[in-house]
Amino acid sequence: MEIKTNYALKRLTTFQINAFAACYARFDSEDEILDFLNRNPLDGQRHLVLGGGSNILFVDDFDGIVLHPLLKGIDVVEADRQHLRVRAMAGENWDDLVAFAVANGWGGIENLSLIPGSVGASAVQNIGAYGVEVNAVIDRVEAISIDDCKKVFFSPKNCGFGYRFSNFKGPWAGQFIITAVVFKLSRQPEFVLDYPGVKAAVGKMGPMNLDNVRQAIVSIRQTKLPDPAMIGNAGSFFKNPGLDDRTLRLERQACR
Length: 256
Known about the structure:
Elements: E1 2-8, E2 20-27, H1 30-39, E3 47-49, E4 62-69, E5 74-79, E6 83-89, H2 94-103, H3 119-125, E7 128-129, E8 132-133, E9 138-145, E10 151-154, H4 156-159, E11 176-186, H5 198-205, H6 210-224, H7 245-254
Parallel strand pairs: 2-4, 3-4
Antiparallel strand pairs: 1-2, 5-6, 6-11, 7-8, 9-10, 9-11
Helix pairs in contact: 5-6
C-alpha cells in the first residue's frame, strides 16, 4: 500500500495532464483495500476510483482522495473442453490480458486488442470495438463496497451493461472498487469479422487464427490512433449517437 498527499497524477493518465490529488492511495491486494477503508471510512468524502487512466481528463487538481487498485494476477479458475473461466485482477493492463489469452489459444476478446486501460475499468465502461463488447464474455465482477467494506460479486445481469455503460458508471458510481473480473473464454474461437475492413485486414495477415485477428485489429487501430506514450490521448473514447425509432424515421424521410 502507498498513501501520498499532493500526489502528481500525470503519469497515471493517458492524457498526461499536470494535475495533483490532495490524497492518493495505491492498493496491491484486496486486504490492503479493506484495511484502508476500515481505518479510513470515507463518510461522503470526495473520492475517485482510478483505473488505467485512459477515460478521464483532469482539467484541475483533484481536491479529494484517488483510490488506485493495482491488483495483479491472471488465473484459470475453471475449465472444460469448450470454455475456460479466467480471473484477471483489476490492475492488469487490458491489452496484456488480450495478448495472454491469444497466446494461449483462448478466444473471445481478440477484437478488443490495443484498447488502453485496465481490466477493472473494462467492466465499468463495457468496452467494445470491431463488433464485440466485453460484457459478452464477462462471467462475474468482483468488488469491494466502499460504504460497508464488504466483498461483493455481480453477475452480468446485475451490472446493467449497455452501450459503453454499466451500473458502475451510472447509479453505482463511486460506490465500489472493482478488484477482479472473471471472463468466460472459448477453446474453439468463433471469429467476429463483420465490422467493415476487419475481414480484409485479417486476410492480409495470413490464415484465420487468433493471432492474425489480433494483429489485424492492432494494425487498424494504429493507423487511426496515436500511441498514448508518444502523444497524450484517450484512444477511441467517443460514443456513437443513438436515435429513437421516431427520430430515425424522420431522419430517413428528410434524406429522401
